[in-house]
Amino acid sequence: MTVRKPRLFYIGMVCTEAYVAAIGEDAYVAAAAAKMTAISSALRKVGKRSVLVSLPFVGKGSLRQRGRALRGDGFPSYFLPVWRFALIRKICGTFALARFAVCVIKQGDTVLFYNHALEYLLALIILKYRGISVFQDIEDVPTGKEAGVRWLIEVLCYRVMCNLTSPHKITVSNQIGRCLEIGEFLAVHGVATPSVSTHVDPRWARLSSGGALRVHFGGSILPSTGLDLFCDTVMNLECHSRRLARDVIFIVTGKGDLDRVRGLSASLRSGRLQIQVHEGVERAGYYELFHSCHASLSLKCPEGELAGTTFPSKVIEIASAGLALIATSVSDVGDIFKEDEAWIMQSANADVLSSIIMEMAADPIEILRRASAGQLSIQRRFGPSVVGASLASFLDLRQSLA
User: Mean pLDDT, the chain, as a whole number?
Assistant: First the structure.
């Protein structure tokens, strides 16, 4: 008789690249999707039967999407039926996930919830009643600086999930684990993606021969994620453009206040600086733009409320791709990168960031050196096999002790 190998269901609310391709419509593939797919793949690498389960979002042209079972991301995934309208989505999504918890998840399986959501709660209660091991991956924490009904619901969901899942948590950073005073936790900052060595990439040859320095700025383009700092820095560089050793091109992708960035671009007159805004670009186009750059920015404000409640996982993506990282010192960033592996800003202001970019423009060899060192370090410490093994070991041990 064949013994069924237990599965690990990783449940979230994301659209992956395989899902977007399957529905044939434009849908935003956010950082959460990248992390969930990377962790699911990492667990597969170490022998875990990981399965991604999602309550995704409908494409821009649909009112409803049916449920789908896919393997396009390199592992099995279930996308439950969803509706566009928020209230219908929450009600139907709650019952769809609860039905999945009853009909698909079996005794001996493990469930890992990504963050917290109202739609999870009924399924969570069912799983607890059935005696299934349930863990929580804490990505961010509701702050006390907000107010209103939505905030109260989010706080309620967060607290219920914390209490009903295992006391042993997965967190996005060591800082969150310490701040929440969790007795035992594993910080999973992200998974390094395999990438070609920076030394054989032609973009560096072009830079060394006098080409423009290309700097990426992407993700959520908002004041809390560094939009003010970015704009102030560009204006600072524009005022001192004669001191730049070469032209600088900023490649801006993502979502947010892109009209402000376009306005800033239109105001540039020196000819040494250029801002290219790429809104709504497809994933393949995004990767092409991203890998054409020499450096990338992670500018989350240290004073902002997000700084202490989450972690900018883009720093792992940037370094593992072989780009030189320029980042503010928030959460665990300063602990992860040594001084010779990235530019970590201890003071988040336009003068400091302008100085770093001027230094880069004058010394392409140093950019390549730090980018290479950062890439090697991140690939070694956050590679798929390393992350997969540590997470599998953590979950297996805590499940056996439960």
Answer: 89
